[in-house]
Each structure stands twice: as structure tokens, then as C-alpha cells.
Amino acid sequence: MSQEFLPAFSLENTAGEQVKFPTSRYTLICFVKEDCPTCKTVTPILNACYLAMAGKVDIHLIGQTLDGNQRLIEEFELDIPLLDDSALMVSYAYDLEIVPTLYWVDKKGNQLQRHEGFLKQDWRSLLNEVCDFSDCRIEVPWSKLPEWRPGCGSLSVDPLIAERLHAESENSPMRARKIEIGSSDDTFEFMYDQGFSDGLPLVPPTPERVLRMLDGTRRDPQEVIAEVAPNMGSATIEKIAINAVMAGAKPEYLPVIIAALEAACTDEFNIHGVMATTMGASPVMVVNGPIRERIGMNMKLSALGQGNRANATIGRALRLAVRNIGGARPGGTERPTLGNPMKYTMCFAEWEERSTWEPLHVERGYSRDESVVTLFCMTSGPVLIVDQTSRSAAQLAGSMGMCLEHVFHPKAYMASDTLIVVCPEHLDTLARDGYSKEDLRNRIQEITQKPMSELVEDERSGVGIPAEKFSAMSIETQNSSLPKFKSNKDIHLVVAGSDAGKFSGAFHGWVTGPMGSISVSKLIEEA
Amino acid sequence: MNIIMDPTNEQVPVERSLARRNGKIVGKLALLNISKPRGEVLLDRFETLLGERLPGIEINSYTKPTFAKPAPEELRREILENNDFLIEALAD
User: Fold this and answer.
1) Among A90, A102, A98, A88, which Cα is nearest to A30's?
2) What is the reported pLDDT for A228?
3) The pLDDT value given to residue A54
4) Among candidates A17, A67, A78, A83, which has minimal Cα distance to A44?
5) Which residue is closest to A464 within chain B, CA to CA?
6) Could you tell me if A466 lies within 8 Å of chain B, comparing CB atoms?
7) CA atoms within 13 A on the CB side of A370
8) What integer is the mean pLDDT of B70-92?
9) Quick one: A516 exposed, middle or buried, by C-beta within 10 A (0-12, 13-18, 19+)?
10) Are A323 and B7 in contact, with CB atoms under 8 Å apart?
11) Do B5 and A320 touch (CB under 8 A)?
12) What pLDDT score was predicted for residue A162?
């Protein structure tokens, strides 16, 4: 005969005593709730059992609400003390779907019989058996009872409650520390006090919200996807999900946030340096591929601005994860002189369908139908490139180059990179003359060329090539010219923005290359 | 009672006590330049002045590959194994 041991429990009864199961006695357990008519049918029967069998068989009548328990006691003048399972943890552990459910259990806690609802024949048969076993007699008016009554749904399977119970149960996939906040404390103020916030209010990461967030990925909640600087905190999927909840993200955004944190924590992207630098750098996230539409990202009007939940909260979730998991906080290892508002959030999608060029992720080796996030390290911007009058691609690309001379400083050359967000109207001007991305890059490099002699530190500005270094150069080198960027690869191009307006934007980079930060792309898990 | 999940890494940092001071500076001193512009100007000056005031020390100079990243593990180990003191300098 197979054995099914029921979960042990310890519950307080209405007399204020702690009651444990199992003991060394046979036991009848019945779950009830006060607003269930069938539970009201069976409650007096259990009371009769208690009166007849006390000391021989344990009788546990378990109620699911405190108020309801009290009302049952008063209505039926019960002698049996009801056990309080208003937390519903025992109901959850018993996988209870229906009340009443009656169990007959041996002294080791092994279930012998289980009955849902009320079928008079079953109940009568079982209780006769129990009476024989305990050598007792109970007075039950069986003839006045209905033949059959269905039960009601257990409170523990109420959709509003079941999620919380799963999150709080022992087999919950979550392992993070649970923080209890006193009912007299304000949760929002508490989270500020703990230093979890970027300065804006946070969504409280309750267990049920985090559990719901974890539905956004198939990955194991305990999988470590990165070590986050500066404290080298382990970023588990669960910890990322907690920060995603706080940021206000939806579960379907989670794969983007995970991929972004993976990208940020590579040696190439160097999130530690990005956060720590006095220049106030911050990641910019560009999302490509089918996920843009699926999660409703904005790539059109106001793509870089406020108003879209996915754009706003994905960027914020990355920053919060770096802050809370990695420990990067202003005044600690984060030392920006001024900081910049992109440190709150900066994430947008490329309008691939509007572009005549290959999208960013395809240029970087992915296929169009893959979803990818690319991180770029910015220190300034988006700096507007205002050109409403150029009619040729060469003119417009020339304007872009002229505006980019100011990245870092007009005399700082070959030092940084840029991410240009080309607006649709500018794209049309470039496309009309058949400009490819490479044509645009070449034109920018051509227009920004300056003779070495103009890039030397002088009376006007101490920035530039040190005078003694310039003097030591050959005449040929001194007479040569430099483009603004070390390589065409340092000019990243994407398309976004509304159809109206001739205003592209350029993010200025940080220290580019292995000495600082290199843009990194990561594949986003498909739903 | 409200419950929230801890968003931090839950690590408790190891507390390290300062090395004992005996009032003397004798032995090997590392000067670490983090590669910021003009960092060498500051550290060269330190080297001159410390050489004059502390004749009992030997100075070793090191440079980080980039100020933008933590010093590589090998460099940290070399400094630790071969020196008694360290001065790490910014600049700008």
C-alpha cells in the first residue's frame, strides 16, 4: 500500500495554544471556511467527533480566516477550538483546492483517506470506521443531512492569494533574503532609507511581484549571469528580477535587462570604469530585433524622451541592478563631477523598418530576426545636430562632422567615439543621394580633419598635443592631418525619431577602446 | 507586516584592520601611477622628496595600464609581494 505523508504543521488554536501535527495519535483533519455552506454542514459533525473522541483521536478543524473562525464558533457554539490558518500556508502546503476537505491520518502522518466536499455515504462510512477504531459513539443526525453537497474553492487557490503563497512557500524558486517591514513603517520611505533608490520612488519588490517578474524568463532564478563591479556581487536572475520590479518593469522586459547586464559586466564594456569616472559616463542601451515590437518599445516620436514604459524602466532596471547588486553609488565608487540625467535611464529601440541601412545589430554580426541589446558608453548628449537647410547628403554629413568636432573638446582628437541617432528626415536626405553608413562615416572623418598644428596646446587652450611632443615629431608628421575618430568603427549609427524634424542627435563617448569602454552587444533570450 | 525581497548582493564586506604602525618608514615603497595625465609629474616629485627625507627606503615605480579599470591581478600581487608601503596617485 502506497504511503502519502501529509505535511507537518504547527498552528495556533482559538484557545491560544500551539497545536502540532503529527503526534503519535491517529488524526482527523478538516479544512473549512466560514462563508462555505457545505463547511457549515460538516462543522457540527467535527464538533461531535471532538466531544466523543478527545484523547483517543486528534481532531483538527482548520479555518481559513480569523473572523470566519470566530463566527463559526459563535454560530454553532463549538467546543472544538479552531486552528488558525489565515496565513493559508498549511492550506497551500496541502495543495488544497476545495473546502471542506477531510483527511483520516495514521499516527505517523500517513494519509489513509481523503474526501472533498460532502458525500454523506463517504463521511458516514469513514466516521463509523473511526468510531470503531476509537471505541466511541457520535451523535450525528445523518437522516437530516443532504446526500451530497459540493464544496467551495479554498482561499489558498484564490488567484489573488495563490501567487503570494507560492512566492512565500518552501519550494519557492526564490532564495533572496526577505525583508520584513513593520506595518507601521512606510515601505517607500524604508526603501529610500536602505539606499535602494536612484532618488525616485521604487515599486516594492514583494515576493509575488518578483515571482511574476521571473515568469518573463525561462532561465533558472539562481543562475549567476555576471559578477557586478565594484563589489563583484553575484547577479542571479532572481536579483535582477528584484531590481526590475523596483524599476517598474514588466516581466516581458526581463530578458532585455538580463542581456544588458551581461553586456555591461564584460571586460570590454567595463561598467566599473563607466560608473566610477569623474566624467559622469553612463550606458546607453539600443534594442534591435523583433522584441522591440513585442514589448512595445518606442523608436519613433520622442524615442529618447519620456513616456514609454519599456524604454524608461529597462534603462532604469540596469542602473538599479548595478547600484544594488554591484554597489556602485554616488559618493562611494561612483565619482562623477556633475553626473548626468542618463544615469537614471537611457534605453531606446532602433526604427529598423524606417531605415534604408542595415540595423545596428546586423552590422554587428546578428541576423535581423534576432533580438539584441547594444550598450554604448556616453558622457554627453544626445547633442542635437540642427540642420534644416542642407539639401545634399554631402552637406548634411558635413554638418554632422562639424557638430562632432566638439566631442570632448575641439582639440581632443582620436580619443572618443560617438553614437549618432539619425532622424528620419535626415535619413531621407542621405538616402536620396545613395549614402551608405560607410559614406556617412567617411564624410564625417573627412570634414573633421585638422592639421596636427591646430591640435597642439597653445595660449587659447591647454588641451591638445603637448608642445614638446609636437616639436619632437618629424616635419612630415607635423604637416599631416587627423580625423576626429581613430577609426570609422568609432562612429555608431542608428535610426530613430519621428518623421517630422531635421534634428539628429549624437551621444558622445568616453575613453574608447581597451583603455576605457568598448560597445558590447548581447543576444536577448526569445520568449 | 509587509515583505520585500532584498535587491542587494547580501554580502557583508570583510573588515580589514590597518597594518601596525611602528613610527618608522623603512623598507620598500611602491609608487603607483594610475595613468592619468601628469600623474608622473606628481609621483616624480614624491620620489625626489621622499628620497631626501627617508634615506632608508627603496622606491619602486609602477604604472597601471589604464586609469579606467582596476589594476590587473598580477600587478597587485607584484606590488604586495615586493613592497612594504604603497602610494597610489591620481593627477589631472
Assistant:
1) A102
2) 95
3) 85
4) A78
5) B37
6) no
7) 17
8) 89
9) buried
10) no
11) no
12) 83
User: Touching check for A512 and chain B: CB below 8 Å?
Assistant: no
ipTM of the complex: 0.81
Q: How far is B15 from chain A (nearest CA, A)?
A: 14
Asked whether A14 and A86 are in contact (CB, 8 A), the reply is no
- Tell me the domain boundaries of chain B: 33-89
CB pairs under 8 A between A and B: 91
* Grid coordinates belonging to A144: 437530516
Nearest chain A residue to B10 by CA: give it. Answer: A177
* A197 touches B: beta carbon within 8 Å: no
Where in chain A are the domains? 9-168, 176-348
Per-residue CA distances from A327 to A146, A269, A330, A336 (Å)? 65, 17, 10, 15
Indicate the CATH number for domain A9-168.
3.40.30.10
Rounded Cα distance between A32 and A17, Å, is 19
Which of A165, A325, A377, A411 should be substituted to probe chain B, the one whose Cβ sees the most B Cβ atoms within 10 Å? A325
Whether chain B has a CB inside 8 Å of the CB on A176: the answer is: yes
Kindly give the parts of chain A with pLDDT less than 50: none
Contacts of B53 (CB under 8 A, 6+ apart): none
| Contact (CB<8Å) B7/A177 | no
**For residues B60 and A153, what is the distance between their CA atoms, to the nearest angstrom?**
77
Nearest C-alpha in A relative to B5: A178
Name the residue with cell 467535527.
A46
Of B7, B66, B69, the CB nearest to A205: B7
Question: Which residue in this structure is represented by grid cell 524568463?
Answer: A217
Strand partners, A505: A384, A421
Q: A 292-321 residues with CB below 8 A of B?
A: 320
pLDDT at A55: 87
Strand partners, A519: none
Q: Which of residues 223-282 of A touch B (CB under 8 A)?
A: 228-229, 231, 233-234, 238-239, 242-243, 246, 267, 270, 272-273, 277
| Interval B12-53: pLDDT, tens | 767 778 878 888 888 999 999 999 888 888 999 999 999 899
Which amino acid, residue A431?
A
Residues of B in contact with A270 (CB under 8 A): 68-69
**Predicted local distance difference test score (pLDDT) of residue A309:** 98
**Checking DSSP bridges between strand A282-288 and strand A372-378, what pairing results, if any?**
antiparallel
Q: Mind giving me the DSSP string for A114-179?
A: EEESEEHHHHHHHHHHHHHHHT------GGGS-SEE--EE-GGG-HHHHHHHHHHSTT-S--SPEE
Q: Which helix (H) or strand (E) holds B5?
A: strand B2-5
